[in-house]
Amino acid sequence: MRFLCILLIAALPASAAAQGFYSIHRAELERHRDTPTTAALIGDRSQPIVPLSALAKSAAEKRTVFGYLPYWINQNDYQYLRYENLTHIAVFAVEVNPDGSLGNDHGWPWVNLINTAHANGVKVVLTATLFNSDDILTLISSRSNRDRFFSNIKNKILEGQADGVNIDFEGGGSNGWPGQINDFMAELTDYLHREIPGSEVSFAAPPVNWGNRFDLSGLAASCDYLFIMGYAFSGSWSTVSGANAPLTGGSKNITTTVTEDYAAVTRNMPEKLILGVPYYGHHWKTATAAAYSTVTASIGPVFFFSAQPESETYGKRWDTVSQTPWYAYNDGSSWNQVWFDDDSSLGLKYDLALAHDYRGVGMWALGYDAGRQELWELLQRKIGTTQDLPPQQPGALAVHSRLPNSLDVMFEPARRAEGYFVYYGTQPQALTDSVFFEGTQGSLTGLETGQLYFITVRATNAAGLSPATQVLPARPGARTTRVLLVDGFDRQKNNRDSHRFIQLHAQALLENNTAFSSASNEAIASGLLSLRNFQLVDWILGDESTLDVTFSGVEQDSVEAYLQSGGGLFVSGSEIGWDLVEKGSISDQVFYRDFLKATYLDDAPEGRKSSFFSATAVAGTFFEPVGTFDFDDGSHGSYSVDWPDAIAPAMGSSTIALFGGTDIGAGVAFSGRFPGGSRPGKLIYLSIPFETVYPAEKRTQMMAIVLDFFNIAPEQSQPAGALTVLQNFPNPFSEKTEIQFAIETPGQVSFTVFDILGRQVFSDIRQQRTAGWSSWIWQGRDMQGRRLASGRYFVRMKFTSETGKTYQHALAVTIVR
Asked: Which of 106, 390, 571, 689 is close enough to 464 for a disulfide, judged by CB 3.0 to 4.6 Å?
């Protein structure tokens, strides 16, 4: 059984002042102790390191914007840094030992980051960390230890041609080290200014000077500037919910930090102060939905990139006491509250710093906003920039295969976009063709039926291109595809790109001659594409877990409605039970039981991590032909499935796979009506991610059996002729159905609908169509727009060519209301 640590993040409240300041810097470093440095930061060490360009914009040209960049930043999030809105990046971190030697430098020098920042005129400083009061005292009170540290940090700076150092020393302060830190900082500043002319020395300072342990005026005078860590006023220790960085309210807040704790420095040396703000907040379980409710449990920090969209879902509230946003929701068993900062509350803090003529502002931490642009745009408005911003990355993406020679592409708009380039090709790493879209949907035409294509989108404006969306695969077929791949695998781990694993599902469908569409899970949640358009949905979750969420509440609603209407769901993921049952709400648990038809037993067979990497199909089930199959331990091209959920059937399902050598379930299947359903649906749920099954031939075999279970037949070539008409889809249908047809030459087409008594109920005549494939959609209504009753109807299609020759075709359709 896994045990999750609860982070203690404390700045601390007055009642805990004796414990000193314990910031999120320290807590996050401990949480990511075993996380490798993101490879994109380091880059190619064979490349020369470029010094700060004298021709690039100078930090002196505007106020400082100082951002901490943790070594564990997600590789995808790293690409969203906007250097034009930054002056300093503080590389976090190089760890310091009490004897002055240096410990883990987390991959320094970060060649790619340094060169990119320097090319854009952004300074790079090292952050030196030491988070124990006794160790700090040992270092700063010893002449030999000081000298050793000075020499070592100078060499580290020179090794990466960095532009200075930020000292982040944090401890309780009870041993008196704050009283000695000013001499240490003054010596270090003099030393580095002498040894590395132009270098900068700064100190990460607390927002509240508990017990006046620090001489803050002396500290500011001893170095180039202070970064005030203006956050962690509430956290895991809190007994009531509240703001992480309150501008006002209570006895201590950001305003009192500026006007009381740092009053003398604010008045006499404002150019020595940077006001740091949080790109994160905190999540608690609470007794009620009211602000400042009693805390029943601390869940942990929440970053802006997830808090902002969640606040839009649950309803953002504004606390007039602290002048910060927050939101609350009930998960079915308890109230939850999340307090965080957005562009409105951060803007007020920036105004405070600017009103007091501070050196600038900063943040913990870069990357915590991911691809969202609100906070970058706030910096642009408040601080300014030397460049216009390129557009934001387009949002949710879907690619719908409806016609044999085209693909429909749809996506959510990007801020500041003046248009979009849709890139496509037959190799995911070489998307050589592109089409310009003025809006957020359109079609790629002239494609080859049966060919596998890969698609991505970038927004454009005069300032440049946005980052690209994820790459989605799709395959045009002879008719509207009945299979949808949903990429719900967002978890980033060990610098892998989790979105590439959808390609393994696509390849298995290709080998089974099956056309398909695809979508991001966000496209389903936003309603960009409806699951009801498809007979089978393959929902990919990989090892997605609690942090990234397997099925959100909105996604659960979509899946429930789809299964209730007779849909088919194939879902695979190793952490679904852990997320929805072990860590989920009551509503999550009900969804898992009633719609995934499973009982969660443990987070791994026998509770043992990385111990099982094979499974066997259960004899006597439709899955039996799969036989024994292996899944990845990390050495077979995907990723290690170290915690595959142990599951059992529930609510009428049956076990179809067992972990090797055990009677512990690895998969269940169900066919029948789901709770509240109007038609029978089908489900296959594997706690082994499909993409980790190897070799590829085994995945192809398994996909063939899955497709057969859901009654998906391989594509058949369509006969050529003057008129070709395909069976409508969906059929039966409730709201609308589509009939695809092909005509050999241009001409007029007409559609007439009759009931079983032969009475005409609808007609749509003399539509001019060009040669090739096209489609006609009927909403199941009569000529007056009234919904027709359930039953069987007949559609007659008539095609008249330009030469006057007439062709007809009839087919039966069924309405189920």
From this structure: 390
| Structure tokens that stand for 520 in this block | 């991001």
Q: Please check whether residue 535 is in contact with residue 482, taking contact to mean a CB–CB distance below 8 angstroms.
A: yes
Q: Where are the domains of the chain?
A: 14-279+342-382, 481-709, 723-815
Residue pair 674/594 in contact by the 8 Å Cβ criterion? yes
Q: Inform me whether the pLDDT recorded for 731 exceeds 50.
A: yes
Q: Which residue(s) pair with 815 in the sheet?
A: 733, 791
Query: What does DSSP assign to residue 427?
Result: B
Which residue type sits at 747? G
Higher pLDDT, 301 or 20: 301
pLDDT, tens digit, 9 for 90 and up, residues 593-632: 999 999 999 999 999 998 999 999 999 999 999 999 999 9
Q: State yes or no: pLDDT of 720 exceeds 60.
A: no
Q: State the pLDDT at residue 386.
A: 45
Residue range 183-187: mean pLDDT, rounded: 97
Question: Mean per-residue pLDDT for 208-226?
Answer: 94
Could you give the CA distance from residue 252 to residue 229 in angstroms, rounded to a whole number?
Answer: 14
| Residues found in the chain | 817
Q: Cα–Cα distances in Å, from 644 out to 5, 503, 542, 543?
A: 21, 21, 10, 8
DSSP state letter for 513? T
Q: What angle in degrees, to the nearest 10, is found between the helix axes of 696-709 and 502-511?
A: 70
CATH tag for 723-815 (out of 1.10.10.10, 3.30.160.40, 3.40.50.720, 2.60.40.4070): 2.60.40.4070
Least confident of 224-228, 443-447, 464-468: 464-468
CA distance 192 to 201: 8
Residues whose CB falls within 8 Å of the CB of residue 587, separated by 6 or more in sequence, listed in order:
331, 332, 553, 556
Number of H helices, E strands in the chain: 19, 40
Helix spans in 82-180 (H): 111-119, 133-140, 143-159
Phi-psi region of 595 (alpha: psi -120 to 50; beta: other; left: phi over 0): alpha
Of 418, 328, 325, 410, which is closest to residue 374 (Cα–Cα)? Answer: 325
Angle value at C-alpha 579, between 575 and 584, nearest 5 degrees = 160
User: Encoding tokens for residue 228?
Assistant: 């005030």
List the alpha helices (DSSP H) in 284-365: 304-314, 343-355
* DSSP classification of residue 595: T
Give domain 481-709's CATH superfamily: Class I glutamine amidotransferase (GATase) domain (3.40.50.880)
pLDDT of the residue at 563: 98
Question: How many Å separate Cα 740 from the centre of its chain?
Answer: 37
**Cα dihedral 603, 604, 610, 614 in deg (nearest 10):** -140
Cβ contact 570:684 at 8 Å: yes
Domain 14-279+342-382, CATH among 3.60.15.10, 3.40.50.720, 3.20.20.80, 3.30.390.50: 3.20.20.80
Q: What is the pLDDT of residues 391-446, one digit of tens each?
A: 878 989 999 998 888 999 999 998 789 999 999 999 998 898 999 999 999 999 99
Residue 545's pLDDT is: 64
Strand partners for 598: 649
Please report where in the chains the tokens 């943790």 appear, as a residue. Answer: 70
Asked whether the bond before 98 is cis by omega within 30 degrees of 0, the reply is: no
Closest to 167 measured CA to CA, from 143, 152, 185: 185
Q: Look up residue 340 and give its DSSP letter.
A: -
Radius of gyration, alpha carbons of the chain: 30
C-alpha 74/C-alpha 155 separation (Å) is: 28
- 84 CB burial (10 A radius; 0-12, 13-18, 19+): buried
Distance (Å, rounded) from C-alpha 149 to C-alpha 169? Answer: 13
